[in-house]
Prior knowledge:
Blueprint: H1 2-9, H2 13-29, H3 33-40, H4 50-66, H5 70-83, H6 94-103, H7 107-119, H8 125-138, H9 150-159, H10 163-167, H11 171-193, H12 197-249
Helix pairs in contact: 1-2, 2-3, 2-4, 3-4, 4-5, 5-6, 6-7, 6-12, 7-8, 9-12, 11-12
Amino acid sequence: MEYERSIYHGLNPAERTIALLSKAECLKRSDELSEAASTLTRVPYPDIHDTLAVKARYQSALVAYLRADFKQAESEMLQMAFYTRDTLLYREYLFLKVLVLNEQGKWKEAHTALEEMIIHSDAGREVKDSLMHLAGKWYSDKSIPKLKKAETAQKWATFLPGSGHIYAGYVGEGIMNFALQAASLGMIGYHIYISHFFTAFTVGSGLFQHFYFGGINRVQFLVEKRNYKNKRAFNEPMKLIVLDMQQRLY
């Protein structure tokens, strides 16, 4: 309430912005991220100086990142750079751009942002060269995750039951899905053989369609699950690396 009073009675845009940032920080610490984000939308950017605008953009991007709204976080970081021509004003916040891009699977852009973070630091030439070399290894084609495509998995599952599951990395589930569909077809064939046509085309056919179309729908979930695991396996260690680099460089 005190911060809101300060915002209302602020003598100038800078004072109101400082109060808005303080209020947003309180809300953020209270895990009220939606309220914090709403508060930061009230910052009067056209009326404040670049240094304060950069701090506000950073807080907005950070809150969006914590809310897992990575597109909004990236937008705030892009606006920070667009409206602030002096990189020295926002170089210490470039680490967040790396983290945001990593979360979106934009690893080439994240690599570029990490190199920018290194270049604009005050570290010596040898340190920069060493870190640039490491960054190249971390974001090499061999290191970044190879994400699966749901469309490819569904095509495989359509033409060869179980293969979509195997493509997604779930071999056991793929074999099980194939076996169930094969068993359903076997049941249909057996009941036709013994002249139980009604059973063949109701129970047998129903089971086959259930496993067939269910398998196709299932692979999309499995691809998303596999991609999530692959992203986390890369992004979590990189998060620690980037944060450690941030502390060392800035």
